[in-house]
Amino acid sequence: MPDPTASASSPSSPPPSEVIALPAAERARAVAVLALAFLDDPIYRTLLPDPSDRRRALDALWKALITTSSRYGRVDTTPDTAGVACWLAPGNADLSLWQMIRTGLALPRAVMQFPTDSRKRFMEMVSATDRIRRERMPQPHWYLWALGVEPARQGQGIGGTLLSTAVQRADTDHLPCYLETETESNVAFYTRRGFEVVHEGEIVGLRLWSMLRTPKGSENSESK
Q: How many Cβ atoms are within 10 Å of 160's Cβ, its own excluded?
């Protein structure tokens, strides 16, 4: 799945105190926030070098991710929809054909909007990251598909608040969290919040890190 980079740094102003499930009425706004947050992301600049292709493909991709995460996980946001986090719930990291059909084949339809060469490289990346995830995290887990913050609001602690709320939820249920990122600064962001790198390597010409957070207080070191 797409790289779930954290588009936020240490807060320069008080972070939001409330995280809510994304209302259906705010989905279009959430798509726009993620599209802007990832527009200059290294992985999408590499896969989609043409800016117009990139924006069109990302709009379709984030719409599909939000649709799918809303059904098979959770989409967190702030009351003003300044940041968005898409999670797949435990047991749903590998979606079946039937699950895809129930979303109207949202993800396959979105990927088909990529130019042919971009689509092939994107699927190569997805295949590789899925294989690594299955090897490193075979047990049930929360899978962070995407975390993005509106560019004008980055640096205000929004990304950290969204992530903290989710990992607290996972801790309550004694479940690990897993993600991938291709941005080294994001590795530090997630490390500060309890994640550890469990795999580092190059895929489609990009350096990617896979990261795991075990539940707080857990003695389980599997997959580290």
A: 22
